[in-house]
Structure to design on (475 residues):
């Protein structure tokens, strides 16, 4: 069973500034979606001794000699590395978080002026070659910007960095150009596989960073068709695919957070804003709902009775090709040694639940770490994948059970975080790290037990009604 990351342009991102979140945390969240339904993932902590020094990509053949002193970090790579690492999301010991990447689009005029680089860097590489070497979100932008300028990229991507104070979103343009915007503290962003950043203020270095020759490059190649420097309009695309595959996801999320702003806009609108302001504080549950959504309460929901998914006009956010969801919360109101929580869910988001793991650890629980390509009912990825398969074919029969499981496990997660905060408050150093690993293991054990119980319930409920069933009492 060989899994290739073809058509890997399917993720959805939500960013929430510290004044927009319910508790003052910076929160970054992204679905990792693959081009196939099954692409097993694992959750690991990477020690400095295990970090490569001479890095070699598997797909693009990009290579680089990495700095000598990496730090420990968490990651959510592929179960096996024959297609590369694909580290995706994590937090390092400095409480800097990174999520890479949100695959985006670039128009042909830009690609003609600055072509993609076949042997450049990409999603396979970015977390591994960046996160162990940065001490702030801004440093993450600076490092990736320099790498892009030197080596180029073979794909267009959005890359996320956060620390307890700031969130930065970097978008590439062509092979070597880029811009990054600091998300305002009181704002949120939904990024759905298309270029998002809009007006760039070159006189505001506190909120924008960019390739040194960006303005000259645009002028030289006559790329700007308006008086303002709108990065999305200059570098992005506005195609039929965008209208059906990308824009509707941002529309639905914005409709959920502040419906008044999109009341007069179509799901296919090219004018949806990048920087948005919700009409309330945003919770983890809000983020999970949107990243699990499939146009509920609209005519576009593929699970509406009588609708067939193949006839639906818009691509949902929560669907079968979700592989993992990482929601990274950096909290300002507890000691920094246990401020970072990596909330994690595997497989399809409509049927999974977030589980909180403290990030300052040397190792992760076996049932989240030891994923293989063989189905294993003792493994968190595979149990959730089996549930998602049943749920897709029996949606209305099983969703009450799934929603009860999700609410119960999320409630447990909040209780665990509060309990662990109190238990480890007086600890430090190795003693703290050990306590957090023990706590994570208990959390994982409970989550896996609840998830396996849900799988058992769904199997029992749906097995009697399969095609070809025969009941002797009818004869």
């Amino acid at each position: 069973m060989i899994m290739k990351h073809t058509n890997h342009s399917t993720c959805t991102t939500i960013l929430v500034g510290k004044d927009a979140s319910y508790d003052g945390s910076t929160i970054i969240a992204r679905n990792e979606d693959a081009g196939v339904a099954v692409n097993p993932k694992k959750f690991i902590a990477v020690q400095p001794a295990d970090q490569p020094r001479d890095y070699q990509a598997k797909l693009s053949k990009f290579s680089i000699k990495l700095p000598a002193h990496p730090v420990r970090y968490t990651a959510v790579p592929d179960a096996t590395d024959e297609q590369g690492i694909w580290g995706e999301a994590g937090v390092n010991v400095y409480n800097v978080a990174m999520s890479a990447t949100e695959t985006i689009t670039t128009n042909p005029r830009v690609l003609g002026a600055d072509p993609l680089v076949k042997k450049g860097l990409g999603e396979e590489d970015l977390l591994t070659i960046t996160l162990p070497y940065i001490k702030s979100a801004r440093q993450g932008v600076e490092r990736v910007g320099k790498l892009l300028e030197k080596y180029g990229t073979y794909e267009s991507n959005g890359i996320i960095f956060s620390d307890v104070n700031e969130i930065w979103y970097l978008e590439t343009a062509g092979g070597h150009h880029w811009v990054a915007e600091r998300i305002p503290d009181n704002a949120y962003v939904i990024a759905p596989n298309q270029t998002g950043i809009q007006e760039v203020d070159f006189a505001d270095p506190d909120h924008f960073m960019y390739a040194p020759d960006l303005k000259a490059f645009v002028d030289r190649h006559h790329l700007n068709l308006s008086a303002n420097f709108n990065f999305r309009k200059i570098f992005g695309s506005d195609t039929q695919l965008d209208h059906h595959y990308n824009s509707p996801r941002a529309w639905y999320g914005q409709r959920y957070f502040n419906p008044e702003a999109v009341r007069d806009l179509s799901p296919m609108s090219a004018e949806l804003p990048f920087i948005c302001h919700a009409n309330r504080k945003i919770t983890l549950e809000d983020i999970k709902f949107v990243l699990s959504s499939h146009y509920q309460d609209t005519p576009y929901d593929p699970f509406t009775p009588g609708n067939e998914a193949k006839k639906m006009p818009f691509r949902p956010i929560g669907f079968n090709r979700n592989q993992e969801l990482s929601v990274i919360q950096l909290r300002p109101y507890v000691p920094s040694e246990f401020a970072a929580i990596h909330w994690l869910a595997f497989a399809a988001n409509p049927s999974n639940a977030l589980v909180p793991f403290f990030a300052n650890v040397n190792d992760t629980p076996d049932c989240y770490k030891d994923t293989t390509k063989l189905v294993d009912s003792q493994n968190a990825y595979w149990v959730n994948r089996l549930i998602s398969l049943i749920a897709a074919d029996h949606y209305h029969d099983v969703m009450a059970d799934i929603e009860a499981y999700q609410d119960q496990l999320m409630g447990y997660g909040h209780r665990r975080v509060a309990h662990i905060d109190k238990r480890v408050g007086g600890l430090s150093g190795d003693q703290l790290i050990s306590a957090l690993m023990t706590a994570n293991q208990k959390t994982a054990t409970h989550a896996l037990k609840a998830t396996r119980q849900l799988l058992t319930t769904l199997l029992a409920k749906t097995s009697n009604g399969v095609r070809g069933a025969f009941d002797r009492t009818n004869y």
Remarks:
- Residues 1-8 have pLDDT under 50 and may be disordered.
- The first helix runs from residue 108 to 113.
